[in-house]
Amino acid sequence: MLKLSPKNRAALNTYLVIALAFGWTLAVDPSPASATPPTEAETLTYHQSTLTTLTSNYNTAVNRAPFYNVQLDTSTASSALAAYSTKVTELATSKTDIDTYLSSKTSYEQELTDLPALISSSQEAVSTSEQALSDAQTTSNEATAAREALEPELASLTATRDQEQSDYESTQVNSSYTTTETFGSGQVTTNISFTVGDTKDPITSNSNGGINLASGEYSGTYMSGGVVKMYQPSKDFYMTPASPATSFTYATGALNGSFTAVMTFDDGSTGTFTVPNGVESGGQLQADSYTYTQTIPAPPNRTIAEVKFPAFSDYYFIDNVGFSGGETTYDETEYQEYLSAQAALAYNTDTYSPAVTAETNATSALATAQSTYNSAVASYNNVSDPQYEANIQANLDSSSTSYNAEVANFASLKVYAEDLELQATTAVTAIVDQVPPYPDRPSFGDQVVYIEIDEGNTSNITAPDAQTAGGGGTYFSNVVCFLWIPRELHNNFLSC
After folding, report:
1. What's phi and psi for 85, nearest 5 deg?
2. What is the DSSP string of 260-328?
3. How many CA within 13 A on the CB side of residue 474?
4. Whole-prediction pTM value?
5. Chain centroid to CA 210
6. How far apart are CA 320 and CA 252, in angstroms?
7. d(CA 161, CA 343)
8. Could you read off the pLDDT tens digit of each residue along the chain, which spans 496 residues?
9. Are 54 and 81 in contact (CB under 8 A)?
10. How far is CA 155 from CA 184, 336, 337, 378, in A?
11. Do residues 171 and 330 make contact, with C-beta atoms less than 8 angstroms apart?
12. Residue 456 phi/psi, 5° resolution?
């Protein structure tokens, strides 16, 4: 598509020159056969090439005939080409089968050639693996003996450790306790210590910072009789067990609001827990008359030395304060003897465990060596068996028979192909001879078509194709377009 857009109205006489070039297809006959008989590959290539050439010449003639108004009867040539094509395809299939049988035949021939060396190498593999198996068996036996040599001492040390452990455990005494202070009728009745303020003043029935012993002032599910009254206390309240404890229990009554209590442990560290609201936090406490109880355990490997309820602005009560704990005592001499026996056993185990590992590894290596030897023996027995060679020979004979038969089949197909080639050549030649050839290029020269564009117009011009310019048929093979524009008007075109 060519678009011309002049910018001014200067005189414009432009011609689109269309040069028509023509082409010609020549059929080249295949090379004559060589002096020596052609191979199957050469025969197949020749017929494939001949079929391609005949088909091309046939198609060229059929396509050229309308140009000369020649009516053709193509049935004979078409059938001959189809029959020839089928036979060439059969030749190609036969050639593929020949290659397959030849490959198998060559492979079996090589197997027979290599068989003596294979038997020799298989026999050598048996000898090598047999020696490796013997070495692995020796190593395994030695590892087992080394492990067994350590077992008597291990058994003795284990028995000694077990006896010392039993002796030590028989001296252990567990002295656990639980002490609960109910405050009787308003007094301290246990060895738990209750003190007030930073000076740790012992609690009495007299108020000290709003804290004192009382009796009968409040009761509920978890509280009755004597209590500690906390009337808007301005000082901290301390509860200390007589000996390190593992848990702490208490009860509160009529406590409005919650606060954080502090627990001090035997190593000087501290922890906290929440003393919850016993009134405002839910009607679920109403059934207990707003009393509440809680047990707080000590962390692992620590014991409770003291519990502090800090000053909290409310009027509430404390009762049933308890500590649980205890310790296990034992005979130190028996304990040290147990530790010594355990250390001796551990030392022996450090020696025994590697011996067990070595035996395990040696046993695994022995199993691998046995498997390798078994495989080598099986392989040698297989390849040295006369039947193995007989099987290869049978396969070779079979592939040779198939190969020879297919070579003969190919030769037969070749004869048919040559006959069909002749028929197809004769039929195609008869078609080609009915259609005149295109004249040589020099006798015609270039044909020119002039398309004039009117002055001042903007035109879209489509160049004609070869068939249109040449008058029909396929005489012209190319169309070449030239645009002539006067020099002084070159800049008047937006696009070209």
Report:
1. -60, -40
2. EEEEEETTS-EEEEEE--SSTT-GGGGGGTTEEEEEEEPPTT--EEEEEE---SSEEEEEEEEEEEEEE
3. 13
4. 0.47
5. 73
6. 9
7. 9
8. 333 333 333 333 333 333 333 333 333 344 454 568 999 999 999 999 999 999 999 999 999 999 889 999 999 999 999 999 999 999 999 999 999 999 999 999 999 999 999 999 999 999 999 999 999 999 999 999 988 888 888 888 889 989 988 988 888 777 788 999 999 999 999 999 999 999 999 999 999 999 999 999 999 999 999 999 999 999 999 999 999 999 999 999 999 989 999 999 999 999 999 999 887 655 445 667 889 999 999 998 899 999 999 999 999 999 999 999 977 778 889 889 889 988 887 777 788 889 889 999 999 999 999 999 999 999 999 999 999 999 999 999 999 999 999 999 999 999 999 999 999 999 999 999 999 887 654 444 444 544 555 555 555 555 555 444 444 444 444 444 445 455 454 454 434 4
9. yes
10. 61, 21, 18, 45
11. yes
12. 75, 0
d(CA 216, CA 486): 131
472, 67 contact by CB (below 8 A): yes
Encoded tokens for 298:
């000590």
Are 179 and 325 within 8 A, CB to CB? no
Q: Confirm if 466 and 477 have CB atoms less than 8 A apart.
A: yes
Q: Which of 391, 194, 406 is nearest to 309 (CA)?
A: 194
Is the separation of the CB atoms in 290 and 278 below 8 Å?
yes
The residue behind tokens 């030749």 is: 91
Alpha helix locations (H) across 279-385? 332-384
Q: Cα–Cα distance between 421 and 428 in angstroms, integer?
A: 10
Q: Is the distance from CB of 253 to CB of 218 less than 8 angstroms?
A: yes
Q: What is the DSSP letter of 98?
A: H
124-129-131 Cα angle (round to 5): 100
* Closest by CA position to 315, among listed 217, 223, 225, 220: 217
Give me 288's structure tokens: 């207990």
Count of residues in the chain: 496
Chain-centre distance of CA 52, in angstroms? 52
The Cα 52–Cα 30 span in angstroms is 11
Please state, as a whole number, how many other Cβ atoms lie within 10 Å of the Cβ of residue 109.
14
Please spell the DSSP secondary structure of 405-465, one letter per residue. Answer: HHHHHHHHHHHHHHHHHHHHHHHHHHHHHTSPPPPPGGGT-------EE-TT--EEE----
Closest CA to 295 of 359, 248, 360: 248
Structure tokens at 227: 């209590």
Q: What is the DSSP letter of 188?
A: -
Give dist(CA 33, CA 46) in Å, integer. Answer: 9
